[in-house]
Amino acid sequence: MEDIGMEEDSAEISGSAQKQGVADAWETVTNALMSPGGPGPEQGLWDSLALLSGEGLGRLLGGWLLETLQMRLSSAVVPEFWAELQQPENELEERGRAWVLLTAFQTLLGRLEPFLGGLERLESWQDEGRGSVCGPGPGGLQERAFTIIRALLLFSPSPVLQERVLEFYSRTFSVYMHQEGQAEDGAEAPEGPEGGVCPGCGVPTQQCWCKEALEQLKELSHILSKLQLLEWVSCEAVTSILHKLIEQRMEQHCRGEYERSFLLEFQTWLELVLGWLSKVFASEAEKDGLLPAPGAPGAPGAPSTPSVPSTPCFQAGQPGSSVLKQWRCHMHQFFCRIYVNMRIEELFSIIRDFPESKAAIEDLKFCLERTNQRQQLLTSLKSAFESRLLHPGVHTSDILTVYISAIKALRELDPSMVILQVACQPIRKYLRTREDTVRQIVAGLTGDAEGCTDLASELSRGDPVTLEMQDSDEEGADPEDWTPDPTDAVPDKMGSKRRSSDIISLLVSIYGSKDIFIDEYRAVLADRLLHQLNYNTAREIRNVELLKLRFGESHMHYCEVMLKDMADSRRINSNIREEESRLSEEEQPPLSLSSIILSSEFWPPLKEEKLELPPVVCQAMEAYTHRYEKLKAMRTLSWKPHLGSVTLDLELEDRTLTNLTVSPIHAAIILHFQDKSSWTLEELSVKLGAPKELLHRKLALWQQHGVLREEAGGALLRGGDGLSEQREEKLQLFWAYIQAMLTNLDSMTLDRIHSMLRMFVATGPVVTEMDINELEGFLQRKVREHQLLVSAGVYRLPKAN
Amino acid sequence: MKVKIRQWNGVASWLWVANDENCGICRMPFNGCCPDCKVPGDDCPLVWGQCSHCFHMHCILKWLNSQQVQQQCPMCRQEWKFKE
Lengths: 801, 84
Hints:
The complex is a heterodimer.
Chain A: H1 2-15, H2 19-34, H3 43-54, H4 58-86, H5 94-128, H6 141-153, H7 159-185, H8 210-226, H9 230-253, H10 263-280, H11 282-288, H12 311-314, H13 322-352, H14 358-368, H15 374-388, H16 396-413, H17 418-423, H18 425-433, H19 437-445, H20 454-461, H21 464-471, H22 503-508, H23 515-531, H24 538-551, H25 557-581, E1 593-599, H26 615-631, E2 635-651, E3 656-662, H27 664-675, E4 678-680, H28 681-688, H29 692-704, E5 708-710, E6 716-719, H30 724-745, E7 747-749, H31 750-763, H32 772-784, E8 789-791, E9 794-796
Antiparallel strand pairs in A: 2-3, 4-6, 5-6, 7-9, 8-9
Helix pairs in contact in A: 1-3, 2-3, 4-5, 4-6, 5-7, 5-8, 7-8, 7-9, 7-10, 9-13, 10-13, 13-14, 13-15, 14-16, 19-23, 23-25, 27-29
Chain B: E1 2-16, E2 46-48, E3 54-56, H1 57-66
Antiparallel strand pairs in B: 2-3
């Protein structure tokens, strides 16, 4: 400090006399500023500086330097840089281009170095207190200088720069990744075969410039960092490279692959990439790491000198600097975003495959929480549903299956259920328009639907405790546990607590009320009970019990009564049977009759059909009713003649059909033919009290069995005993088919022949059902006649001659 | 041709032999059950009075219990006597 004071004093003493001295002093100082060598502080210089300061010119120095820099830049340096960069127009290969890029920047640095040195010197003078030399204005001189450089250099950048940088970085990336990858595998770099291509730099191995490329990278990043251009030149390229590479890798590895998680895999890979980034931003990083950059950059092509001792910081993949930390965040963000984008595209398929695609859903959940793409996901998923699922070509049961998968998958993805609720709204709306939705759901619940076992297992999994929890909405909820809904939640009265994830509740609530389901279930149950002959209700009881847990006791009450009716009926039947058995031989009823006795108020309305049963049946029913009345005082029975089933044997002249199970109307028809062999449709209709159209439909069964046939006159029917010849004719017709089939296909099983024949018959003119037993008999006869061979159930034709 | 019926499984519904559809007290169908019952038939029988009116047994018992002075048929106000 004292030193300065003295110098100022001396300047004041001798100053006024030497105007000429000022010019000289200016000359000395500016020369010293611009001299590349950086002279040590000399007394002469200090004197000159002091003189200028004394004249109040000191603060012009900074301005002058910047001005000169600007002039030089715009007149010479910048055009030179761009010219150099573009100079070898399309003549060089990649390696050459990389070299040109590097040299261009080297020249640039060389040109600017004097200025930078001068600036540094000025600042240090200022710091040492040798007068205010930096001039007025905000920010340090250096900063302003860099701004000027950036502004002038990148004012109109040629796309060639970005191209070159991108290319160069991509190359070094692949080189780096290749080397690291090898190091990771622990495998020595295999010497490729002669003329092989180096996987790193993509040229034949003997010309490999991997090492060189890495050196160049180091050098380039150093220069850029020195000029404070690193961020401006590299960021865009690095970003786009990372983007492209992550995308590429994801396309290759993850697309269509839902069954394993990729998060960890990518994490490791990203750490590897970070290693490369640490090379790109080496100097920047080291600056942040407070490691002073040593001197000038090493000469290009000197691979052995590690001029940038930054590697230790990053070797463990741990970013030691904020720049790398930033990039790591960036990459992570890229990754999440790209992953989410891809999975959103594939979400429909993921949902369809759900239990298998759980890993993908979990990954997506992780990434989705880190990006802001819920809205995109919702929109995309909704439209995927609409275009792929909700159109007339898709079977209702398939829609339900996907919906169930969606419920399962989306409740994993978003525990708040908002995505589920919003995305599946169109499905629910659409299902409401399908007529068979309820039936399908009920079939699923009772395990009748093929391929859709989810619902049945879901039902049996039913946990009454959780169900009750859902019902009691206000109580038991700890206010501390309350979390607000996500922003995309649909504002509705229900609130999050009511947003159920229970599959069955969700399905049932499609229609807004359980009643419609319970009615449907009742109809299905009634149908099942009436059509099974063995009064075995174990499965139905189980289903009803499970449904009771879901829908509540009171709703399933009717179904319980129905099941009880079945049990009661069985008891009454055996009671009556017992009573009958005590009767003498001649009093035995002509017909073994049992009955399902319904509590009519509790069953769904059964369709009424008029049918007069033959007297023998009516008598049996009357007798049954009589016994019932004795058993249950003041109660009687009202028969539903058209319901039930009949097992009968039919003895024809040439054959006997045994154990046929038919409906009462079929039985009634054939019973009438027992007494009288031909009826007109008219007569039958009167006799049975049933409409002709219905009868005509029902007659088909007996026609198929070859028991009845419609005469040419149209109206006349004939109870056929003499039908066997006609039958034989038909079989002979089949024989031609069978022979042809066996000629072509060599050998066939009975089932195969039967199904093939059915196919022909269905398309052919003869509409006759062929019984498989009958066919077997026919084939056996052919075997006996040596027209056919059979071994191990396979029929074949005997070899010619 | 001979038809031999092995087994005929019919379907019938039971009903009370009563001169009315609904119970005059609870207005529920006789073939159903009274409001307190779950299962119709044996568990919720009908009873007839000598006046020939009939009710769910549970209904008429409740009615009779609630009558302090005289036990009357709620329909015809005759004295209630169970029909044997």
